[in-house]
Amino acid sequence: MIEQLELGNHAAFFFKTNEERLAYTIPHIIHGLQNNERCLYIADENTVFEVLVKFHQAGVDVRKAQRRGALTVVTKRETYLRHGLFEPEKMIADLHGEVKYSLEHAFAGFRATGEMSWALDLPSALPRLIEYEDKLQKLWPAELCALCQYNETLFSPELVEKMISLHSIIVRGGKIIRRTLLRQDSVEVGA
Fold it and tell me: What is the DSSP track for 145-188?
C-alpha cells in the first residue's frame, strides 16, 4: 500500500494507535528515500529521537541520509510554528520552497509527513489548520507527496470529517481512497 502514494499526492492518514501510525509512516518515508525524494518527518506525539530510532530499526542508515540532506526529522516549532503563530500562507510558501530546493539539489521531489496533533495544543490553530489544508490542496505542487497524520482518538469526529473532505486521498483502516476534489490544481514548482 505504501507504493500507492507518490509525488503529487496529498493524503490524510487516520489511525487510532501509535503502532498503527508508525507501521505506515515509517515505510512511507523509506519509500521516498528509495525514490531519491528529500524527506521530512514532523514529530509531535513521538519525539524526534523516537522517530529516528524507528528509521534505524527499519534499516535506514540515518546518519548517511541526514548528511546527504535526504532525511530530516523535526518538531512543530521548526515547521508549523517557526513563524511564531501558525500562519497557513507562510507554511504553504515554506513547503513550495522545500520542493524547489529539493529539485535544485537533484532530488526527484519532496515527501513530508506530519503528526497533526500539535494543533490541539493551540485552540486558535484548529480553524487555521482547516484553512491551511484547504488552501494547500488548491495550490498543490506536483513534486510534493504529503501525508497528514490525524489521530482519531484525539481529534473530534467533526474535525476528522472536515479533514476527509479536504484531502484528495484518504488512508484509513488499511485502505486508500482516492477522490477528485473541486478546484484542485497541481502547481509545477520546478519549472
Answer: EEEEEEETTTS-HHHHHHHHHH-SEEEETTEEEE-PPTT--EE-
C-alpha distances (whole Å) from 136 to each of 23, 75, 190 are: 26, 20, 17
Contact 84, 156 (CB under 8 A): no
Buried/exposed code over 30-49 (b: 16+ C-beta within 10 A; e: otherwise) = bbbbebebbbbbbbbebebe
Please give the order of strands across the beta sheet that includes 71-75.
Answer: 71-75, 37-43, 109-115, 144-151, 10-15, 169-172, 175-178
Residues facing residue 74 across a β-bridge: 42
All three cell numbers of 66, joined, read 541526514
DSSP SS3 for 112: strand
What are 43's strand-pairing partners?
Answer: 75
Packing angle of the helix pair 48-57, 18-34 (nearest 10 deg): 60
Quick: pLDDT tens for 107-166. Answer: 999 999 999 999 998 878 889 999 999 898 888 889 999 999 999 999 999 999 999 999
